[in-house]
Amino acid sequence: MKQIQLASPGGLGNLQLVETDKPKPTADQILIKVSSSSLNYHDLLVAQGQIPTEDGRVILSDCAGEVVEIGSAVTKWEVGDIVMSSCYPHWIEGAPEYQLLSFIGDNEDGYSTEYMAISEKSVTRIPNGWTRPEAATLPCAGLTAWRALVDEGRLQSGETVLVQGTGGVSIFALQLAKSMGAKVIATSSSAEKMERLKALGADEVINYKEEPQWGKAVLAKTAGLGVDHVIEVGGGGTFGESVRAAKLGGHIALIGVLSGPAVSQIILPRIFMKQLRMSGIAMANQQSQIAMVEYLDRSSIRPIISDTFDLADIASAFQHQIDNKHFGKISILINND
């Protein structure tokens, strides 16, 4: 079978397409024929070597595929079932614990492979009616947005959500927020992407290059009150404006560091004077993923996939991501039969 492995010390030039043996599931494992994956920012950091990992690591955390073989003790799945990955395959329920937070495609081998043998407990079903490429966008980006807005944010109809940019988490957050009756303000630096955001339901859009202090623009669009929730994916370069944009007693979900990990100015007084609530979000447990799937069963939401690459072209897919040419998710096609 074909598999992408990352040679140390990382870098797109060290992504190697290799031939290797198909794994055999142990008693409590299932064998998944991997149909699709999708790219996340975490995957990019691993591929670039910015998150060090073992030599020969099989990358990618997202997967949707078919169960083609089961171990003798497997009871949850049958051959022919369609499943999707959990980014933390050992975090089934409850609060995070360090020993449960082994990230697949980073701390252990992931899904840039045609077949994967994994514990029957490490996957969930996909939403009813979803294709495998659609389902493969959910385990990281979709679940992150779900936890930010639902588990931690406790989003209510009529509240206002700010999303930053047009990556996978932000687009999912926009779609989820609108489906739950919230108003959405979205930022982007591209006039074309701003139009696409409005077409997806964004109530207001702000060009953050034209308005570097875009937090003030958010206040102007909310009668000076600010937003109830901020989906903060930018990191150090955007955090100050996120604090400015949040309303008194608002919620900021800290998710990404696209603009860097360090905050350039001291803003702690603004945080506690506004009595803001911060949530650090790194995906969620499997029970949260199951709740998301059940919600999507009843929803008309479908992921936005702007580009699809074959597994062998994964370096080009990552470069496409680096160049910020995508809108929503980049899909990786692994088995198309």
Automatic annotation (TrEMBL):
It comes from the Bacteria. Residues 10-332 form the Enoyl reductase (ER) domain. SMART domains: PKS_ER. InterPro entries: ADH-like_C (IPR013149), ADH-like_N (IPR013154), ER (IPR020843), GroES-like_sf (IPR011032), NAD(P)-bd_dom_sf (IPR036291), Zinc_ADH-like (IPR052711). One of its GO terms (molecular function) is oxidoreductase activity. CDD domains: MDR7. This is NADPH:quinone oxidoreductase.
